[in-house]
Design a protein that fits this description.
The protein is α/β, with parallel strands linked by helices. The chain folds into two domains: 268 residues, Alkaline Phosphatase, subunit A (3-Layer(aba) Sandwich), CATH 3.40.720; 86 residues, Gyrase A, domain 2 (2-Layer Sandwich). 32% of the residues lie in helices and 16% in strands. The protein is built from 13 helices and 19 strands. A nine-stranded mixed β-sheet has the order 18-2-17-8-1-7-5-6-19, with helices on both faces. A hairpin with a 4-residue loop joins strand 3 and strand 4. Helix 1 crosses helix 11 and helix 6 packs parallel to helix 8. The radius of gyration is 25 Å and the shape is globular. The protein starts with a helix and ends with a helix. The chain binds 2-acetamido-2-deoxy-beta-D-glucopyranose (NAG) (4 copies) and zinc ion (ZN). One 2-acetamido-2-deoxy-beta-D-glucopyranose (NAG) binds next to loops. It comes from Astyanax mexicanus (Blind cave fish). Belongs to the nucleotide pyrophosphatase/phosphodiesterase family.
Amino acid sequence: MRVFVMKRTCLLSCFLALLLPLLSRQEEHSKLLLVSFDGFRWDYVDRVPTPNFHALMEEGVQVEKVENTYITKTLPNHYTLVTGLHAESHGVVANEMYDPVLNRSFSMEGPEVYDSRWWEEAVPLWVTTQKAGRRSGAAMWPGSDVAIRGVYPTHYVPYNASMPFEMRVEKLISWFLGTEAIDFGVLYWEEPDETGHNVGPESPLMDVVIEDIDRKLGFLREKLKISGLYDKINLIVTSDHGMTQLSRNKIIELDAYVSQDLYTWIDKSPVVGILPKEGKFEEVYNSLENANPNMVVYKKEDIPDYFHYKHNARIMPIIIEAKEGWTIVKNRTEPFMMGNHGYDNHLHSMHPVFVARGPSFRTGYTKTAMRSVDLYPLMCYILGVQPLPNNGSLASVQDLLVEKPTPRPTLPSVPNEPSYAWALGLFLGAALVVGFLVPFVKQVTQRQLPPLPLSNQEISQPLLQEDHKVALIHVPVKHGLSAKSNQYYWCHA
Ligand SMILES: *[C@@H]1O[C@H](CO)[C@@H](O)[C@H](O)[C@H]1NC(C)=O
Ligand SMILES: *[C@@H]1O[C@H](CO)[C@@H](O)[C@H](O)[C@H]1NC(C)=O
Ligand SMILES: *[C@@H]1O[C@H](CO)[C@@H](O)[C@H](O)[C@H]1NC(C)=O
Ligand SMILES: *[C@@H]1O[C@H](CO)[C@@H](O)[C@H](O)[C@H]1NC(C)=O
Ligand SMILES: [Zn+2]
């Protein structure tokens, strides 16, 4: 009887001891919202007044020089941010690709973005978060409306370039607050990339867009404050790449050196993937190798190791890299852009902004440099999720975080008299917790969620639901959209 009583007492204390720190940690420290403003170069924050970016720096941390991954394009870098892998390892090596194993082509403007095979050489953080029994929500992050390994984010919206930023924010906040509250959110916005391509980063017209982005960040901060989330969640605001100014006097025409009949052109300037026709490799390579001093021509096996851009079948046998500011075209019939990115990831102009704040981050701290692959292990640490193998290093970015409080012993103090019964009770209690509560909690968290109203193309997914692979097919959003607004943006990105 006494043992029984002790056991019950202990069951309760074990329950509290084991679960309370877990729960409070989850609620107070581990929520995370990752925001990307496409093409927001690191130095835009010092170009015009950006009070909201600067508020985040004062309340949190800033990294001045974030080295992103080669090639510095939109899809490769967005996937790097959520996988911690270089492009050669996550497989999304460009915005336009050819996979010789699948014998298929990929364009970010086309319906093949929904073919999960293009994404499944890696597993993004939202999937890993859900496998760990937590929830995620995505407003437009590249790949987040694809069933990667059969899993969609718990909540997401199919890509729709016309959906206003404010609506994306409202959705994320409702997902963070809902009864099935998410732990990890990702938010994507197309600007200032689009304007950067159209007018060039040196144009004064950019100032207006940068100020507008800062106002949008202000809207997000305000909404987080009103909803009581501002001091509870960790907010990271970053981007995929920077932008550099182009010139009509810096155009390289490949037609002048090699016939289009000899090769297939895979990805666009400034890093062009060249697939020579059968038996034409040497001819194409020899024609291009020393043709123009403003481009570098690599055989795949000679691509420098520091690019980490070699070991993937989707990287073409020859790649041509333009020097900064130069544009490679077949001939001058192609449209011209005033700004572009994709160049060498060591160029400062290619680097994105990085600011973050929240309970996990230090305040008023500036770090000189990090690599974008390091963000993944950092986010896993904040979320308390086991990272998958990756190319990042938590140690090299841990100084961004507040020092972890040393865990205090949380077991109840041992009563000094009935030690045998207490020990037995502890043992039985712990066994009960493990044997009963854990499956129970698992059961509860993995139970099929009640259907949420499907407003505005929002789709709610049960956790780890595998049989929803076809769910998106009936949604004609992206395919219809890609004809116009989608393409307008994506084709430049
Ligand atoms: C690759 O696909 C194309 C059609 O898209 C086809 O003509 C060609 O024969 C295929 N090549 C191989 C090696 O299967
Ligand atoms: C995209 O979003 C806009 C703005 O919310 C909406 O009016 C439009 O219907 C959406 N398009 C699709 C295809 O859902
Ligand atoms: C320019 O390139 C396009 C393909 O991009 C080709 O169709 C066209 O014939 C080329 N024009 C000239 C003048 O070679
Ligand atoms: C990046 O990480 C992947 C997965 O662990 C690994 O296979 C690859 O070799 C790593 N790349 C580098 C350059 O270390
Ligand atoms: Zn981009």
